[in-house]
Structure prediction request, 268 residues.
Amino acid sequence: MTGTDTILRVTGIEVVYADVVLVLRGVSLEVPTGSVVALLGANGAGKTTVLRAVTGLLPLHRGKLTKGMVEVDGRDVAGRDPAAIVRMGVSQVMEGRRVFAELTVDDNLRAGGFVRRDRAELRSSYERVMGLFPVLADRRRVTAGYLSGGEQQMLAIGRALMQSPRLLLLDEPSLGLAPLIVQQMRQIILDINAQGTSVLLVEQNATMALSIADNGYVMEQGRIVKDGPGSELLADKDVQEFYLGVGEAGRRSFRDVKTYRRKKRWSA
Prediction:
């Protein structure tokens, strides 16, 4: 693929924390333009670190990219300021929502579009968010801290969309949400993608993620151990056993998986 049809390319990256802890070990993945790509793995596999490498946030966590390359639209972003990467069209919704709890819904959204100067484009982004999240339109003057968990997640995504990103990074958007809200979140991601935004979805809810992903990657201990179309990974016996709660492992969620014995047939 060329830079024109791949919005994100991560090639053989290694990341070290505090100069001693090697967290990523030669991770490579791609997000084709216009697609949804899922990145799956147990707690501590390195999924969030991949996102930090893309968004330039590694130094804030004493992390350093020591090998490999991260490209957005064919341009190397390694070492760039996070704000510069945002201006290139990349927005991230971090795990745990992290809305500004003391500000209103509207103020949170304004903060998301703070660096944009074109008022017409900003208004268009605002209207897009309100169209995607009618509940926020009804509660725009409510203090964010009083929203439910699902509403706060919607607000966090809406705030990221105020930058009108071409690539949206979602870190555990279903975490801590009721099953009905998870299904709503699934549809929201599909709607965002249908509007032209590429999505890299980091999730522990593998069933939800793979049901909407064009392609998926499975991480284990800082490495990609399996990848393929989302539908194929969803049907893969190893993925089912270790990550979907089917088979001898009996796991219901990635959150319950710490370490496991890799089978000989598991692709390295």
Q: What stands out?
A: The radius of gyration is 18 Å. The chain has a mean pLDDT of 87.
